[in-house]
Every structure is written in C-alpha cells, then in structure tokens.
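## retry 2 of 3
previous attempt timed out at serialization; input unchanged, resubmitting
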Amino acid sequence: NDWQTLKEYGGGILNNWGAHLLDQAMLLLGEEDPEVLCQLAHTVSAGDAEDHAKITLKASRGLVVDLELSSCAAFSQDNWFVIGTCGGIRGSTGGLTIKWFAPNSLPAVQVDRRPPQERDYGKPEEIPWQTEVWHAADSQYPGWEQIYFDLHRTIREGAPLVITPESARRYIALIARCKQLCPV
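## retry succeeded, writing output
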C-alpha cells in the first residue's frame, strides 16, 4: 500500500520483482531473445499498478520458462519449480531439492498394446531417481547480499561486473515488452 503500488512512481510487481526473476529465467534460456507472452493485472492491491504478472518466455530451441509474480495470491508456492528432461529442481530461498536420473540408467520399456486387464491401466516406469538437497544456510554464498560483495570486488579488486549494463538493459527491454503487450 505504498509508492510501489503506483504507476506514477514506477511501481508494480513487474518493476519490483521482474528484473530479478527475468535474470534467473534468462540464465536458463541463454543469450537468444525469446518469444514473450505476458498477462498483467491489477487485482486487489492498493494503487493502480499491476499486482500480478504471468510471463512465458520461449526460446527457439524449445526451452520454455513460465514466471508468475503475484502480491495477491491466496497461497504461496515454491519460488522455483524447474522441469527438465532428466529431472527437476524445486525450492525457495531457504534451499532447493534437485532430483534427476541418468538417461543411460533407465531400463528398457515396452509398450503394451493389449486392452487393460480389469481396467488396470499401465504401470509407471521404474526410474532410478537420485536426489540432493541444498540448504542456503550451509552455503558459503549469502543470499541477496552477494551483489554487494560482487560490487566491492569489482570496485576494489578490478573483478568483472557480475551484473553488466548489457544484461540490465536486456531485462528492462523485456519488462517494457511485457508492458507493451499487456498495458494495465
């Protein structure tokens, strides 16, 4: 209910959180400019800026990233839910669960074309899943504070910028594209 809910001050969920999540999405998609689909809405929050954004980014090689940003959802979900061809990742800022399999470890599977016996439809394949859990508290890297450590290394030690002006311009252009596609 503050300035961040007002368009005249550059408010809205997309300006507030969009660049951070688009940064993560674009790390998955790579350098290519993706196809962009977007829905923005102002639902129940104070002010006139969008409080809900649904963004789908699709790369030409078939990768799709689906982002949902909302300050008005009744239920929270994991921050990350990644579906890959050989596994996935889910979790939030406190930690991640990574689950995967090695494709060459899968047993051969045969399709049974016969009618199901007693309406017993198929048996799921046995997948030799491996799981790893990463806890942020155990990490040598702090959370969002890391940006300041990185900036200090750039200024004081000459390290390259982690967040470059080019990447920032790219995310600003994506946010502008979303607002062009779906003005609120």
